Amino acid sequence: MTLATLRIVPSSTKETSFRYLEGNYGDGYISRRQDGISPLIIRWSVQTPDMPVEELDVLEAEIAALGVNYFSWQAPDETSPTNWILDPISWQRNYASTDKASISFSIKRFYT
Fold this sequence. Notes:
Layout: E1 13-18, E2 20-26, E3 29-34, E4 40-47, E5 51-52, H1 53-66, E6 71-73, E7 82-95, E8 100-109
Antiparallel strand pairs: 1-4, 2-3, 4-8, 5-8, 6-7, 7-8
C-alpha cells in the first residue's frame, strides 16, 4: 500500500468546515464573508487496515519522506484523486499483534 493507493477502515472519519471572516459592528450586528478562493476545509482522520509490519514500514517511510509536501489520493466519497497534506505532520502506529499493525494520521485537502 502507498499513499496513492491508501485504503482506510470504516471507522475513519471526514470533517468539513467553512473558512470565513466575521466583522462585528456592535449592537449585535455582524457580517460574515467567505475567506479565500477555496474556503472549504476538508479533513480526514484515517486509519489503515492491519497489515504485515514490513508493508507498514514501507508506508511509514513514504509518509516520513513526504514531510511538508502533498500527495494525490482519491477519498472514498470522491470520483477522482485530489491533493492532500498531513496536518499535523504526525502519525501513530497501532499494533494488532507482533507481526500486524496499522497506522493512523490526519490529512487535509490541499488546493494547488
